[in-house]
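## Example pair
The file below holds two records. Each record gives the amino-acid sequence first, followed by its structure token line.
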Amino acid sequence: MIRKLLAFSFVVTAITIYSNFGYACTSYLVTPGASVDGSSMISYAADSHIRYGELYFFGGGAREPGSYFQAYYRGSHKPLAKIPLPKSTYQVVGYINEKQVAIGESTFGGHSELFDTLGGVDYTGLMQLALMQAPTARDAIRIMGELVEDYGYYSMGQSFSIADPYEVWILEMIGKGTDPEMDAQTGKYYNNEKGAVWVAKRIPDGYISAHANHARIMTFPLSDGKISITNKQFNNLHEPGIKTIYAHDVIDFARRKGYFSGADEDFSFSDVYAPIDFGAARFCEARVWSMFKEVVPGMEKYKDYAMGFDLKNRMPLYVKPERKLSVEDLINFKRDYLQGTDFDISQDIGAGPWGKPYRWRPLTWEVDGKTYFHERTTATQQTAFSFITQSRRQYPGPIGGIIWFGVDDTNTTVYIPMYAGISKAPDTFREGFGSIIKYEEDAAFWVFNKVAHLAYLRYSLKLPDIQKVQAELENSFREFVPEIDKEALELYQNDPEKARDFLTSFSVSMGNYTVERWQELFRFLMVKYLDGNIKKEEDGVFLTNKWGKYPIVEHPEYPEWWLRTIVKLTGDKFLYLEGQPD
């Protein structure tokens, strides 16, 4: 009885953690054969109401004996396990390492009772530890699988994007819950169900995939040692034909829990561990559909699924695009708010008179006993940081790996190229410069938030001014990169350290310059749109009257539909009476 009560208390703790954690991220996966330059690319957005936008940096090289990684739970910063590090680790810039292995994620949740409240490492720790140690995407999968087996998995269900210069994989993982038992000698509790169940699938070359907070792996080929292996067959990890890797007990555990009773070959990870419902489709799968439809003909047939109306017509895990994709394409996808569809959130009344494509939380709300919702789009106000990575086989790791990094809203951020070989982050982006509860005037996160929050007031009017500077910067970076690649490669062939210094100088200067330019933009917007007016300007220079003293001011009218809405809601309350004094 005591053990059952303990187990119940741990489950309650897990549900509390689960329900209090605001998760939502959008990730794209592009294989080398589907990209314009042969890059593997993944994207990620850290969408969170408590996260701060900064560029993480882990130096590589030899480690002191006894060095360890302190794991924390990302949802609360609760300390977890201290995990020993190997003698040497790789450098990590954001979420790409010097071997060009890159990892992103999105949380799908799944069965809340499977959260391991005694686990020693969460999903972020898995990502960081894998990047510090993995020379390939497959090794990252192995390391993550071994870590949860050794330390337990303190997280909800998670989808991971994992790329190297040659391959792109999706790994989906969920814990096994908490079956606590006390160690008589130490008095500490341990979990009899320590570990996680997971499946990883390689995206075929020439194809793309995406995930956005719902599990997407369904059926998969069972272990045969040739195209599919379990974690008990890691000796075959690097066999060229391997397309699937999974935890050996992923199906058996589901049977034990009563989630599944069919034939092994019919087992669907997503359907068993994270059953689809209206919210998962509308808030999550709709973001995948919105990206797929831009590059794949015929996606209209999945529209009703994505909108939550036909949950049986599941979208495929991966699709073949009709054209090859670039970094610029992925940046544009990150700025999606369902524009061009019937669900464009800049076009309904919730956007206000100035077409703001954001909805403050909560996503769902009740009126007269009925539950309603706001759309959840890829571009969202609570993004801490986001990125697109490139892993390019034609270059050495420090040059070939690039993380195009931005902070705050994807729609109003600037993606800056940070090479995997840089020796430090730009001061304005560095970890610890400001926080989500500490304002720093020159920190990139706060500078971009200033501009975004100013834009929220009259979005459709201010966005073109923001996009002008955004395009100026991003276009220049795309033009610079080929020249930087060329120069860095020449340096690298003679002196790798000089190449690293060169790359550092470039990325750091571009990062800091971008923040300076955004500060200028904030000052410009503040002056131009002060007090609801618009001061006329040409190329950033404000026009004045003929005596040069005062600005020429315009007063943009509210759109007619908004004025009609006011009349509909208020009747004759604001009716102007003819013949009365002004």
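Second record, same layout:
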Amino acid sequence: MTVREPVMRRLSEAFLDHGYDQLTMSGLAKLCGLTRRGLYHHFSNKEEAFRATIRAGNDRTRAESLAAGRQLLADGAGVLDILAGLLDVRYGNTRRRLSQSPHAQELNDQAFRSCRDIMVEAATQFQSDFAAFMMELVAHGHLALRPGYAVEELVQLLSDGARGINQTLPTLSPNQIAYRYRRMSEAILYGFAAPTHDAPADQAQSIRMASALSA
């Protein structure tokens, strides 16, 4: 059964405002403007309701991030701006919203405990969509990969990096997140270090490791 968007929005706000552990289904129902019976019509328990907010949030940010990337491309932005902007919508919007909650750590921990399958599914779908978009950038000459590198690998590294930034300690302030995504993307795309005499041996070792993983 489809849950109306206003109900999902109020449900998400309830968890952000009150955390997870102390909320009951009765409390959630009241905060969402529903009767307890009405809430049970949609969800059988609190965990199911929480999982629904995580799934909805991932679906929303995945769609919005790809739309943002396409809009930046249409506006004539450079590839670094496009990729950093896309990552900021996908990973940054949720992180900034969560950072405003006094229960941020509790909600983050609960998401990893009870929603890992949703998070893995969302990451897989996003990275597939991201790779397809990246291939368009390559096909139209906005990005050229060096020999031995694949679009899927670049997408994985960018996504891993963005997720890592979201878990940085000490926690980043909300206004630092977009800049950190950009610098990470810049480092992956163009590098921070100039090649030295170690570079050929380092690259050869990377090739050997990649071959071993694919064997």
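Notes on the second record: Residues 58-192 form a domain with the Tetracycline Repressor; domain 2 fold (CATH 1.10.357). The chain has ten helices and no strands.
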